[in-house]
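Please decode residue identities from the backbone states below.
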């Protein structure tokens, strides 16, 4: 059965967004951003990324399960 290319593109873009969110979390955890920004700003961004990563992970997993 042929898989819809739009669905595959959606899965790919969500996977990329998830990887970018992971990389952002890593970058925010480094000492340099902490010294350049207020701690409250960094903490806020970390909380946002912590919320985004599981959402994107779930979207990718469920989309892959239902791609047929």
């Amino acid at each position: 059965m042929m898989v819809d290319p739009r669905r595959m593109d959606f899965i790919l873009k969500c996977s990329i967004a998830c990887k970018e969110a992971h990389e952002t979390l890593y970058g925010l955890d480094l000492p340099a951003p902490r010294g350049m920004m207020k701690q409250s700003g960094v903490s806020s961004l970390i909380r946002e990324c912590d919320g985004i990563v599981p959402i994107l992970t779930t979207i990718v997993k469920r989309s892959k399960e239902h791609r047929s």
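Observation: The helical segments are 5-28, 31-36, 39-65.
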